[in-house]
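Researcher: Structure prediction, please.
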Amino acid sequence: MMTTSPHRTVPGRSTRESETACSKTHSRRAFLNDLGMGFTGLALGAMLAEDGIAKASSTVIAHPPSGMPHHTPKAKSIIWIFLSGGYSHLETFDPKPALNKYSGKTYDQTPFENPVNSPLHKMRFRSVAAQEVNVRDVYPTIYPMQVGWKKHGEAGIEITDWWPHLSRHVDDLCFIRNMWTTDNDHAAENQIHTGRHRLDPPQPSIGSWAHYGLGTLNENLPKYAVLGGPTRSDTRQSIDALYLGPQYGGVPLELGGENPLPFGSRQKGQSLESQHAEYELINRLNGLSAVEYPEDQQLAARIRSYELAFRMQAAVPEAIDFSQETEATANLYGLNEDATKQAGQRLLAARRLAERGVRFIQVFPSPYGVWDSHQKLQENHTRLCNTVDKPVAGLVQDLKQRGMLDEVTLVFCTEFGRTPGLELRGGGMTGRDHHPNGFTIWMAGAGVKKGHVHGETDELGYNALGDGHYVTDLHATVLHLLGLDNRRLEYPGRKRLDIDRGKLILDILT
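Model: Predicted structure follows.
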């Protein structure tokens, strides 16, 4: 179906001058839009790039959404694994012997500087509650490690004993131990994905920026797929495109049921031909409205969504059909064990989607907030690590044996860490509170160093030392691996702050 392309007005110019300017600077985008407002136009841009007709170079200025990377990418796809609730960096990937040595003492009773008095704490602290009533982050009594740890691999990287499967792959992983963020409540789940504190105007999610900047590798699947999330309504921002337009938001897929794509399924008894005719009529009607309202993003997204949904009806069920997998693969991901089945299914589906060209796959292996161990940390983390350790290790091994670690980058993260001090609210004696001041994530795969540790927290695991890395540094690095320069990703009429763009974590890149 053919429709006309909307024109944007350039501030300070007449409409005709603006149209001329836009045609000069966005001629390729205008061509694709004129060719087809819907999926056909978007797919063509990607196919041109895939076939080598449109290649990134140092002299090409790509204006997203063009389907063209800014530079040669290292990764084709990102699998972004997010554990909701805030796992303890101390009991996972950044163990601290000093916590045991000075257990029960206050920060002031150790030979170290009190981390609460550090300029780093003051610079990064931003609580929604008034500082005088907010006791989080500053509990004074040191709480010991709740699990043992040892060095693993040729790199000799410390991991706690709750990760027996993942620790075997430590030489393929790259740990970033000096992450920090500012929100010390669970709105940080949105912040790790968007880069914005909840008191600030929101930004599009990292997956949406990737979707916006790049063309598809498979015209029958979403460019940005979501498995297991968003975990609830107030975390929708974690997959939202906001001002980029709804067509760039994440597409949640369901596993384990008969209807993985509810919004695109045919009615019972409806034939494929009948549905095709129905969608064609809808698109024609929407197209008439698009001529009258060319700037209506919701309408443009709706047109694209119907076309994509029709194609996805066959492609999505096939992509997440585990019957094609071997018993060895099922065992690798823990599909036959109750504790690991949910995470295993979602991570195996992520591998299958990446195989089929999905650019950004966001995986929530666990339900909302379950890692939030204010009490009974030892009990909770023992159980929770067991649910994801084998499936995540299985994903690393599976990607490696298929040669996919050379083209897929994994990101394993959470919204913040846990306090070195014992949480005392409500008479607690067995847990740690939220801790945005310093925590650990890891990456693996395309473009990332192997068996490497970048950055550190102080002796007690409190502050990320040096400049550390705010969450948008991670975003900038991930987009760089996909061939996108985060500082050149722009949307007309919107100006991002410097912190929104982030800085590359250069030390981890190959």
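Model: The first strand starts at residue 77 and ends at 83.
Researcher: Thanks, that helps.
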